[in-house]
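Worked example

This section walks through a single chain of length 286. The input is the sequence exactly as stored; nothing has been trimmed or padded.
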Amino acid sequence: MGIADCPFDYCDCMIIALITDFGTQDSYVGVMKGVIAGLCPTAQTIDITHDLPPQDLYAARFTLLSTYPYLPPSTIFLVVVDPGVGTQRRAVAVQTSRGFLVGPDNGVLSGVLDSEPVLNAVELVNAEYWRVPQPSATFHGRDIFAPAAAHLANGVPIDRLGPVLDPQSLKNLPLTAPAVTETGWQGVVQYIDRFGNAATTIPASAVSAANFDTWTLSLGEITLPGGRTYAAVPCGEGLALVGSHGFVEIAVNQGSAKERFGVAVGDRVLIHLWSTPFDPVSSPGV
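Given that input, the structure is written out below as tokens.
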């Protein structure tokens, strides 16, 4: 797809949104921004986060998925959580109907790609668009990914960055998809935030038609009531509710579900939709 066919209106201030596990103590983020500024001075960079747990692909996947809808169309998402840097894993750029995704082909992009049509995908092997002909084996964020994002912000057609890829070949992280059951829904935990809240893969629509006292969530032998806010239960008690990200999450009012229940990414959860209000007295384990 050439620039004449691109669905975006290139303006004087393209947005590049950064998601990394680099932290802010070291110079890595600043160096990437410096590379971007040198190639596309008019680009606006937005720091989504640089405090993801090191090498946590699932956290990167969820962070991209949960922020993608809220930035303007044509945003370039630059995701660098890359434990396989310097190996045979591919460096890729993907064009969707809303913008671009740039990062390693290790599954961090898969949350968006599971539900978003891909217009084009390429492998970033054209050294003309790298920072240097021989990139560092340990910092592709500086030498390959940041330059690719900057060139896209300048209006360079994505297919100049490298050969076209089959979107079906892009790596997907193994994460069980949510499914309807006879009594409700089943899913898994996909992300745990700094408060210890555990976001599941079950969408808000699964419980949107139910009153908050007519559904529960089971995590192993623990059953939690559904609620609308964290304060729907007493301080220190657990519940399930719809998080701002649009998924059902497990939480503890003013506490940590991770610590209280030992919840982890990949844990199986069940939603039960009740025909009458839930009675915690007759359902132990809350």
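What to look for: The longest helix spans residues 140-153.
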